[in-house]
Automatic annotation (TrEMBL):
Recorded superkingdom: Bacteria
Keywords carried by this UniProt record: Activator, DNA-binding, Transcription, Transcription regulation
Natural source organism: Gynuella sunshinyii YC6258
Keyword field contains Secreted: no
Protein name: AraC-type DNA-binding domain-containing protein
InterPro entries listed in its UniProt record: AraC-bd, AraC_XylS_family_regulators, Homeodomain-like_sf, HTH-like, HTH_AraC, HTH_AraC-typ_CS, RmlC-like_jellyroll, Tscrpt_reg_AraC-type_HTH
């Protein structure tokens, strides 16, 4: 089977995107997404890094990543694997979580505590959800299934609170938000340290220890996330590279493929822009 990467953006569900990868051996650097991410391993094995730990998982495993949670999934050496990922906008899930837990959505999204689900029932439920979402003639069924699926995840989560390792001290949170908000601008470490109220050394050390990546890696991750949105609206690759803070197209191309596993052109073609 030849390698294949396909992105689905269901017409009636603009808050989500589905990625299907077949027979790929591409490895990812540690990164995060603004969206809530949930996926399954269809075949092969992968090393799944999350919460500072690496676990080896195989077919049928369901992985969950909260928004901004650092992670990576990489196939074993010289092996390929197939998987599907669903990226869901955090605002939509926050509103649903508020309904399920009968609380105000103003309190924000509370991270789910589970990052891995095993068992055939979990795999089959995910498979059914993706099948309905990618079917052009089952809008109501897909909407009901989507709501039920994520409501059940929220209900089943024992704590539905961010564990201590996901809660950061206020100074690190300020640094994170500053980098995220200013990701396309050229900022320096002194800027971030001043916002956080920490020395440069302490900031870098604590940031890496808490989030699993450096401040610069977060900046690149957020730039790529912003670039994906611009590419989907038909902007030229050169313009996107410039608008997201990359020095040139080759620099942009290298980082984009490292995190998304396809080139900017391939990603744009998948959105229907030629």
């Amino acid at each position: 089977m030849s390698e294949q990467q396909v992105f689905y953006r269901p017409e009636h569900f603009p808050m989500l995107e589905i990625r299907q990868a077949r027979a790929t051996s591409v490895a990812y650097h540690r990164h995060s997404h603004e969206e809530f991410s949930i996926g399954v391993v269809d075949s092969g094995n992968t090393d799944y890094f999350i919460d500072g730990q690496t676990r080896r998982i195989g077919p049928g495993a369901v992985v969950l990543m909260n928004p901004d949670q650092v992670h990576s999934c990489n196939p074993l050496h010289l092996q390929s694997w197939s998987y599907r990922m669903l990226y869901l906008q955090a605002d939509w899930l926050t509103a649903l979580q508020a309904e399920v837990l009968e609380r105000s959505p103003d309190s924000g999204f509370q991270a789910l505590s589970q990052s891995l689900l095993c068992g055939d029932s979990h795999y089959q439920q995910y498979h059914q959800l993706c099948s309905l979402l990618t079917s052009p003639d089952s809008r109501l069924g897909a909407e009901v299934n989507l709501t039920d699926y994520f409501a059940e995840l929220i209900r089943a989560d024992q704590r539905c609170e961010a564990p201590d390792r996901l809660k950061c001290a206020s100074h690190l949170q300020r640094a994170y938000e500053f980098i995220a908000d200013e990701c396309v601008r050229e900022i320096c470490l002194d800027d971030v340290a001043a916002v956080a109220g920490l020395s440069r050394y302490r900031l870098v050390h604590a940031f890496r220890q808490h989030y699993g990546i450096t401040p610069h890696a977060l900046q690149i991750t957020r730039r790529i996330s912003h670039a994906r949105q611009l590419l989907k609206t038909g902007n030229s690759i050169a313009a996107v590279a410039a608008d997201t803070g990359f020095t040139d197209q080759s620099h942009f191309h290298r980082h984009f493929k490292r995190q998304v596993a396809v080139t900017p052109r391939q990603y744009q073609l998948s959105a229907g822009y030629r």
